[in-house]
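Module 6 notes. Inverse folding takes a fixed backbone as the condition and produces residue identities as the prediction. Think of it as a translation problem where the source language is geometry and the target language is the twenty amino acids. Below is one complete input and output pair. Work through it position by position during the lab.
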């Protein structure tokens, strides 16, 4: 039985944090940022997967899968 599909969790400008950003010396640093772009892709089976471009507080931008982000609000 396949897993139940989860829809899109975040919208543009939602505030998010990255799960377990850094594990150096057993310390975890939380990063906070805002969603700037939503990307929908399909895996090899054809299931939709959601990715987001995030602009972090340090003005860096990166792309992350939906499961690696948490909502701050």
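Target side of the pair, the amino acids:
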């Amino acid at each position: 039985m396949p897993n139940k599909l989860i829809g899109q969790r975040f919208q543009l400008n939602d505030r998010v944090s990255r799960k377990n950003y850094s594990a150096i010396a057993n310390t975890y640093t939380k990063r906070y940022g805002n969603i700037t772009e939503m990307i929908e892709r399909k895996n090899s089976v054809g299931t939709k997967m959601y990715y987001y471009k995030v602009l972090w507080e340090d003005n860096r931008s990166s792309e992350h899968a939906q499961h690696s982000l948490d909502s701050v609000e």
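Reference fact for the lab report: The chain has one domain: 15-71.
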